[in-house]
Specification:
75% of the residues lie in helices and 1% in strands. The chain has 11 helices and 2 strands. A two-stranded antiparallel ribbon has the order 1-2.
Length: 314
């Protein structure tokens, strides 16, 4: 009887092990298939863009202005406008988002009602449609701040109370702010609590601990937040529809109070408002290719900076 019982237990154990192995292989196969499908879709999209845009892509296309109703020529003003937008947006969003994350992580009490309200606001902003940010930028930055500044400082003469790079960049900064705050806050939390306590035990102040211990330990996370913000901001169109993007400009912007052309908006208007959409298809794909290259270049620069910071820490 004992022999039969042992054999039954052994068979049951083997059967359970086989079932677990099968389930494990099914899960691994499903996840691997999902990864392959995602990569395949990405490569397919990139392949179509490169295939249809490469014939138009050239140095002249990058460095020249649009001509013949934007059915010919290049996209140089749109490249410059997009670059300025991303830079000003990053200058506005990253420091403010980092300061907010430092407050929430290092200064706010765990049961703080104010901190809970801030976190709720950040989560809410993260799911607000981007077009809402554009309408907010139009109403607050242009019609309230800009028009108010013109009334006070320019005697009512229109200067700041109209769409421009500054208002578009600040609107985009609001859009990307939740990404920066969340990523930086998570990066700050990865710094061990023991390091903070050791610094304070040695006589350092709270700010000295943050500046010399917490901040250096989380700088890579801050750079990650910057990368994510740049990636999202460079391709967004809706927030700048009402706040600064122009259909066509014959000159480059000379200050942040000027309107600008944008690569994403350029693609949008050429695909919806061009006099001959089919004729501009090669330009649309080439512009998309340039936008991807610009975003990738900015990301690579941020990654290089992050890697150098990490190597110095080591």
């Amino acid at each position: 009887m004992e022999t039969v019982s042992n054999e039954e237990n052994t068979a049951f154990t083997l059967d359970t092990t086989v079932k677990k192995d099968i389930k494990g292989k099914v899960i691994v196969g499903a996840t691997l298939s999902a990864v392959i499908i995602i990569i395949g879709i990405l490569l397919l999209i990139l392949g179509i863009i490169v295939f249809k845009g490469w014939s138009t892509f050239s140095w002249e296309f990058i460095t020249s202005f649009p001509t013949d109703g934007m059915t010919k020529g290049g996209i140089f003003p749109a490249i410059i406008g997009t670059f300025i937008l991303v830079v000003v947006m990053s200058i506005a969003a990253v420091p403010f988002g980092t300061i907010t994350a430092i407050y929430l992580t290092e200064y706010a009490a765990e049961n703080s009602v104010f901190a809970a309200a801030v976190r709720f606001s950040v989560r809410t902003l993260a799911v607000v449609p981007s077009i809402i940010f554009g309408l907010f930028g139009l109403g607050f930055f242009i019609q309230f701040l800009g028009a108010g500044a013109d009334t006070v400082f320019n005697g009512g003469k229109l200067h700041w109370g109209q769409p421009n790079i500054l208002w578009a960049s600040l609107t985009m900064a609001l859009l990307t702010l939740p990404v920066v705050i969340v990523s930086v806050e998570e990066a700050l939390k990865t710094v061990p609590r023991e390091l903070r306590e050791a610094s304070l035990a040695l006589g350092a102040t709270k700010w000295q601990t943050i500046k010399n211990v917490v901040f250096p330990g989380s700088i890579s996370g801050i750079m990650t937040g910057t990368i994510l913000a740049v990636s999202r901001g460079a391709g967004e169109v809706a927030p700048i529809l009402f706040t600064g993007a122009a259909y066509y400009l014959a000159t480059l912007p000379k200050s942040v109070s000027d309107q600008f052309m944008n690569l994403g908006y350029h693609i949008y208007i050429m695909s919806t408002q061009s006099s001959d959409v089919e004729k501009t298809m090669p330009i649309q794909f080439a512009t998309t290719l340039v936008l991807l290259m610009l975003t990738l270049s900015l990301n690579i620069v941020a990654v290089i900076i992050r890697s150098r910071i990490r190597s110095r820490k080591l």
